[in-house]
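User: Here's a structure from my thesis project, written as structure tokens. My advisor, Dr. K., wants to see whether a designed sequence matches the one we expressed. Can you design one independently, without my sequence as a hint?
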């Protein structure tokens, strides 16, 4: 494909990096052949600006139809900012707010260039989309439709459009069927029916490690999936250094931990022990590792991990660093915030119930140096945020899915970062947290089969595998 085949919009010519221009040309080539595709560049490589470059070439005046971007609720305003920055010439409508307001927007913006809405609002408003035709439909953070049974997945597949694209840094998080569902949105039937896909490809690859099935899937998928890694295309991106900090927990904590583990084993190893019970027990064990106070309000002993974390934060802040601190437990973030306040260390907090307008304000303020530490719930802030003011990332507790953890790290290690990024994983020694680390290392081969990435999750593990974690 010659570079001159498709000209990058003139206003973006000086903005796009060479690999982003290749991404733009790849999107245009797929469009010319009436194919859909997955832009699966690693987090932080600017997938949004590449698709905005593409959308700039298909305005309403050229196609007679608006295009549609569907994204997580928390990213609608971010899309508005990015469009204002990279495509101010496009008339873009952010379809959000109360139901009556959204309906009015749809009725008055039919000749605009682009609509942006969320997965949640799309499924609520799906009746209002009936009879409407869009030129392109783009799914941002496409892993949001990984489960074919969800209403969001069913809703996006009903959108009438000429062209479909998916943006995601993690096309596979847990199992290969997620990739099948993305292709069922893009080009229904291309990867067979779901039952045939499972029989011919997923089961042989996941269960038997069948190399021929893996090669067949790769051959089918590769033309329609573009994935570049940061180390390959961003030679100028500062290095990322990862450190595992093992924390020796106190005797009181160890006694608490073993008491919880023993009770969990007793409750879960009998016939009544189902997967949900085991998962609940594992969550409690992980909370004890974070701080026994999360589970036991009468616990009076030390919290070794919290103290180690505060010591790390204080040292980094003293040396002028800004920090992103991730945890899956919002109650833990609250405890950390209290202690940071006592130490005179300023912080912001972002979690699932933070309104989207407030999220945008916090991000801008942090980027301007407004706080030394940004406490972020992993699920709420793992994707779609640009926080390059930070050059230290702390993962207070490890997550089963390494891809989700890496996405969180990439809030800081991305384009615009000027400093080396240091990533600290705090691990309670001789506990379930060390086993989670081992699992991350063992179960990162699935995405490698198709894209060169990684992913696996807790829910895909068998009951026996889960029980082994209690030992």
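Assistant: Designed independently from the structure alone:
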């Amino acid at each position: 494909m010659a570079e001159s085949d498709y000209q990058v919009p003139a206003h973006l010519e000086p903005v796009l990096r060479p690999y982003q221009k290749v991404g733009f040309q790849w999107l245009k080539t797929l469009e010319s052949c009436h194919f859909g595709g997955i832009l699966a560049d690693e987090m932080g490589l600017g997938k949004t600006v590449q698709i905005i470059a593409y959308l700039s070439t298909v305005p309403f005046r050229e196609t007679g139809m608006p295009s549609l971007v569907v994204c997580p609720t928390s990213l609608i305003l971010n899309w508005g900012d990015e469009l204002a920055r990279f495509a101010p010439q496009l008339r873009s409508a952010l379809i959000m707010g109360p139901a009556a307001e959204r309906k009015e927007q749809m009725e008055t913006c039919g000749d605009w260039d682009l609509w942006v809405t969320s997965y949640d609002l799309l499924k609520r408003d799906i009746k209002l989309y009936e009879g409407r035709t869009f030129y392109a439909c783009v799914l941002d953070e496409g892993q949001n439709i990984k489960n074919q049974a969800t209403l969001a997945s069913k809703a996006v597949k009903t959108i009438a459009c000429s062209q479909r694209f998916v943006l995601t840094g993690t096309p596979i998080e847990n199992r290969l069927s997620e990739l099948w569902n993305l292709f069922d949105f893009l080009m229904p039937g291309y990867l067979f029916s779901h039952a045939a896909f499972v029989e011919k490809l997923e089961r042989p690859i996941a269960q038997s490690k069948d190399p021929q099935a893996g090669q067949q899937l790769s051959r089918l998928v590769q033309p329609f999936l573009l994935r570049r890694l940061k180390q390959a295309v961003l030679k100028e991106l500062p290095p990322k250094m990862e450190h595992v900090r093992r924390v020796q927990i106190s005797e009181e904590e160890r006694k608490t931990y073993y008491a919880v583990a023993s009770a969990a084993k007793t409750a879960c190893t009998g016939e009544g022990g189902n997967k949900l019970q085991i998962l609940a027990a594992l969550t409690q064990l992980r909370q004890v590792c974070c701080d026994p106070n999360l589970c036991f309000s009468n616990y009076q002993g030390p919290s070794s991990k919290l103290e180690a974390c505060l010591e790390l934060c204080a040292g980094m802040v003293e040396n002028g660093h800004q920090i992103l601190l991730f945890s899956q437990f919002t109650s833990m973030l609250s405890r950390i915030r209290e202690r940071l306040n006592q130490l005179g260390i300023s912080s912001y907090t972002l979690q699932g119930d933070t309104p989207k307008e407030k999220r945008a304000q916090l991000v801008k303020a942090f980027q301007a140096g407004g706080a030394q530490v940004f406490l972020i719930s992993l699920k709420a802030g793992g994707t779609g945020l640009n926080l390059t003011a930070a050059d230290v990332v702390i993962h207070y507790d490890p997550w089963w899915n390494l891809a989700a953890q890496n996405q969180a790290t990439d809030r800081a290690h991305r384009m615009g970062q000027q400093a080396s990024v240091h990533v600290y994983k705090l691990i309670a020694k001789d506990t379930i947290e060390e086993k989670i680390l081992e699992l991350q290392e063992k179960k990162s081969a699935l995405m490698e089969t198709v894209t060169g990435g990684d992913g696996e999750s807790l829910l895909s593990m068998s009951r026996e595998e889960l029980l082994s974690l209690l030992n």
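When you compare it with your expressed construct, this may help: Residues 452-457 have pLDDT under 50 and may be disordered.
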